[in-house]
């Protein structure tokens, strides 16, 4: 493994630290690889993102003074281009974690972008909004999108090199920005807690077991399809996450589905430990939850799409279904229950996605950027 390039001033940039998700975990892994790096972001809400950030040097935009926006980053969309363009980073190399904004931060050095996806609300607006979005949101996005695309593509040109977390995102970067990108799997930072904290709402299901869906509650995650696949069955499902779809899902879910949110890492570990399998029907750019489940020896039932194809292996760690339809999910769970699973092999698979391997790649990226004079040598 390469040593950290200590002679260089390295900074980290991220869109906004206002939630707990895979992108924020990538930032934590970057900070672990470069513990002296300052983290730059537009909005930072310590109470709703991972607590580890409280011990780090996090610099924010002026917009962060508005408490409502810290707690509702989607409402800040019209202002985020201005906030992002106003961010200035003094560093030799900036490692950018972005799905829409941080690649526009100005810097005195060079930018390497770890792209979770080009902005969904610009290039996949139907998936982002979902069927339940009102006309006001659709009209606002229709008005803003043309100018935002110009701004976004200009921001992409300011970056020296792009990395994608999966093959599907690599192809999306090429389509949106006409830029090549290397695939670099995101790390799965998983510490197996020997004494995980019980989730009280689910404690009575611990002995029988349950299926687990951990997801932000957004339209393209298709959590409603997962819930519907359990409707009318004697199977149990725990949905863990928060997002704009939460109220609708909670109002229509059957009694054999429990929804929880804002859990500690220890409580999430408890859910994995007591689950039978992870279930996900989302159009996922990077399939993180199957890796986290695998680290606990749990297989997955997954949509055959996107990042899941990079992080799970059919027959070894997962069963796939072809469309996010309740009947197909139900049939895939039937196949899962008829199959035999090797826990040791599942855990070994998860070990491939380690912080150490990710850090080694980051050190190579920083060294390359520091020693290369022209962008054409980087791709």
UniProtKB/TrEMBL annotation:
InterPro entries: Glyco_trans_1 (IPR001296), Glyco_trans_4-like_N (IPR028098), Glycosyltransferase_grp1 (IPR050194)
Domain Glycosyltransferase subfamily 4-like N-terminal: residue ranges: 21-185
Pfam families assigned to the protein according to its UniProt record, in alphabetical order: Glyco_transf_4, Glycos_transf_1
Keywords annotated in UniProt: Glycosyltransferase, Transferase
Domain of life: Bacteria
Keyword Glycosyltransferase set for record: yes
All copies of domain Glycosyl transferase family, residue ranges: 207-348
PANTHER family: SULFOQUINOVOSYL TRANSFERASE SQD2
UniProt-recorded name of the protein: Glycosyltransferase involved in cell wall bisynthesis
Organism, as annotated: Williamsia maris
